[in-house]
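Same chain as my last thread, 286 residues:
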Amino acid sequence: MRPAETASLESHLKALVGERNPFSSPEALAAAGAYVESHFSACGLEVWRDPVSFEGKEYFNVFGRLEGAHPEEGLLIVGAHFDTVEGTPGADDNASAVAALLEIASCLKDTKPALTILFAGFTLEEYAFVGSEHLCKRLMQEDVPVAGMISLEMLGFVNRTPHSQNYPHYVDPAKYPDTGDFIAVVGNEVSQAMTVSLVESMKQAVPGLGVEFLVVPGDGAAFPEVQLSDHSPFWKGGHKAVMVTDTAFFRNPHYHMPSDTLEMLDLPFLRDVTEGVAAYLVSPQM
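reply #2:
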């Protein structure tokens, strides 16, 4: 596995940042999906688009498959959504995670991971996870085994000011840092072992990276703030799934705002998160 590179992440971000919305900027949304597709192809993955219908129009998810040593153990899906809400360039939400997804594919392209990895560029996450819901249902209908799923959701914003980190009401803030300079891994009961394994792997791969985790009961239905990404359909489907996030609006004041720009991101932090996730994927423990 090659190390993650800040320059590559920045290049992806420059190509992606800008409103990518099905209503106000459909051409930019399609272009973002095409960019993901092109990079997956450049990495030598098996690549395809999957049409997704939404409000009478057709959009698409993009997939790249990297065959693992033990394909019989099921797919390990790693995904990030490439759409935005209207009125934001979406640098952190979610170009940061798409850039990480593409860089992870580059880091692993010459490896043989233990599990078959399905890299997923999801469309229409901002409209109740339309793209990931479509994939989850398709996998269930086709009886495709799923080993686990990782949703990459906003990975690049850091605030090292004291008391800059907030938490939902059901989280004891005394147990977590009060500065927004860590990455969070969120799982549910079914995915608890996967959550802990990912955290430990990221810490080992990037010792200077702060990594915290939270495990919620059931499918997270009582904890709506931690359901807000593409892992949610997989939780509801009974699969192991985790979200990797910089905690979004609990830290980032630019969430869904015009100010969510490339200049607001911490690229070395994004590089470290990318490298940590990539290291886990080589030989994941589920």
